[in-house]
Design goal:
Layout lengths: L1 E2 L2 H8 L4 E2 L12 H5 L8 H19 L4 H13 L7 H9 L5 H17 L4 H13 L15 H26 L6 H11 L5 E6 L5 E5 H4 L34 H16 L9
Helix pairs in contact: 3-8, 4-5, 4-11, 5-6, 5-8, 5-11, 6-7, 6-8, 8-9, 8-11
Length: 277
């Protein structure tokens, strides 16, 4: 079933009957499938609650109530690279999370991220996960990582979930950017009109039926959004579902927006406060 209406999508996301599609269990330690079996995104019930709590605690430690330093870091690094922004959000987040060897980290995240979301396994993705585990600073990780409560798992999870989403958000926002439009307004409307993730999936745990939520269509529901097909940065914040809703909203929405905004600040030649360079 494909959900295309906003109200119905909200109902699915708020109903505990609908859970993420199951992932493979029992994979060798250090592989992509092993990692996917240990993270909050693909878990349910009390396990999900425990893993999500670890993730949210790490996010609070990372930036507290103010994520301005992530935005400033993304702006600074983009300017240092003379506008070459690919990899910047991952580098800034990785540094904030305490990872060493940022260039190696970005390459490993880039290699592992597509499979992390899709579940498509490969030797390259497995090697990238092994590299990420090593960079997480767990020197004796082989056979000893216990899973959801491990801080290293949470740090890797944040990087993999943020990588494609933030880079996709920046790329989509640049396609709609026009002079004089504030960066924050541009990002809010991009999230509604052109989300980096097009579909999110759930499974009815009672029947086993898969439910797909078409985020592009849901975010343009005419019952919720006026002139829904028009890109209008003047809308400001809207009830789009790009960051989820209900029982499992994205815990790092503010962090993702800060990283994307920092890149766009630099590309627009402005500071986060709107001042010139």
């Amino acid at each position: 079933m494909l959900v295309t209406r906003h109200t119905e999508a909200c109902s699915v996301l708020a109903d505990s009957r609908y859970v993420p599609p199951p992932v493979r269990q029992g994979a060798p330690v250090g592989t992509l499938a092993w990692l996917r079996a240990l993270v909050s995104r693909f878990s349910t019930g009390e396990v999900h609650a425990d893993r999500r709590a670890t993730l949210t605690a790490l996010l609070a430690e990372l930036a507290g109530p103010d994520v301005a330093r992530l935005r400033a870091g993304a702006r600074r690094l983009t300017l240092e690279r003379r506008g070459d922004w690919r990899g910047v959000p991952t580098a800034v987040l990785g540094e904030a999370l305490g990872f060493p060897e940022i260039d190696r980290l970005v390459e490993a995240v880039r290699a592992a991220a597509p499979g992390y979301l899709s579940g498509e396994e490969s030797a390259d993705a497995d090697a990238a996960v092994t590299e990420l585990v090593k960079l997480a600073g767990q020197g004796s990780w082989q056979g000893s990582w216990q899973g959801s409560e491990d801080d290293g798992i949470a740090r890797i999870t944040l990087l993999l979930q943020a990588h494609a989403a933030v880079e996709g958000l920046v790329a989509n926002a640049l396609a709609h950017a026009t002079p004089g439009v504030p960066v924050d307004d541009l990002l809010h409307e991009t999230l509604r009109h052109d989300p980096p993730l097009k579909v999110t999936r759930r499974v009815d745990r009672e029947t086993g039926d898969e439910v797909g939520i078409d985020l592009v269509t849901v975010n343009r529901d005419p019952d919720v959004f006026a002139a829904p097909d028009r890109f209008d940065a003047a809308r400001g914040e809207t009830p789009h579902l790009t960051f989820g809703a209900g029982l499992r909203p994205c815990p790092a929405a503010r962090h993702a927006l800060a990283l994307a905004a920092g890149v766009l600040d630099a590309l627009a030649g402005t500071s986060a406060s709107g001042e010139g360079r």
